[in-house]
Amino acid sequence: MNMKVLVAALVGAVVAFLLGWLLWGMLLMGYYEANMIHYEGLMKSEEEFNLGLMFVGQLVLCLSLAFLFQRMGTTDLMGGAMMGAVIGALFYLSVDLSFLAMMNYFSTPMVVVVDVLVNTVWLAGTGAVIGLMLGRGKAAA
């Protein structure tokens, strides 16, 4: 792993954090509140959120993406967006189907469809930035 991967991961984590706040914290908060089964104590209040730890989680995800993108030669905005979307869709489909199979968390299976789509958009945007950062300084073909 080199400095370019680390910088791409850091910038990607900032984008993931902000884009996640926009998507889940503002635009879709009401949808998720209405379509998730609530259990006492499951979700922390806003005052109890650990934003630093949330950012570290985004950083680990983005470090994984940056490492994979570098190994695959994904070094541009569109390539990063495509790979982020594919990885996001497959990963979150796996997670959400597992949740649907094992937990009483979603009030309807439609939440899985929405969640996978939103996570796909989220990782496409994050992946685009990571791909762009990995390609910085590369000579134009």
Please explain how this structure is put together.
The longest helix has 26 residues, at 77-102. Helix 1 packs across helix 2 and helix 3 (51-72) packs across helix 5. It contains five helices and no strands. The chain has one domain. The protein has helices at residues 3-27, 29-35, 51-72, 77-102, 110-135. With 141 residues, it is an all-alpha fold. The mean pLDDT is 94. The two termini are 25 Å apart. Helix content is 75%, strand content 0%.
Topology:
Blueprint (H helix, E strand, L loop, with lengths): L2 H25 L1 H7 L15 H22 L4 H26 L7 H26 L6
Helix pairs in contact: 1-2, 1-3, 1-5, 3-5, 4-5
What key attributes describe this structure?
globular, 5 helices, mainly alpha, 141 residues
The total beta strand count reads 0
Average pLDDT, all residues: 94
Described by the principal axes of the CA atoms, the overall outline is: globular
- Provide the low-confidence segments as ranges: none
Helix content: over 70%
Compute the number of helices.
Answer: 5
Ends: how far apart? 25 Å
Number of folding domains?
Answer: 1
Provide a short characterization of the protein structure:
With 141 residues, this protein is mainly α. The chain contains five helices and no strands.
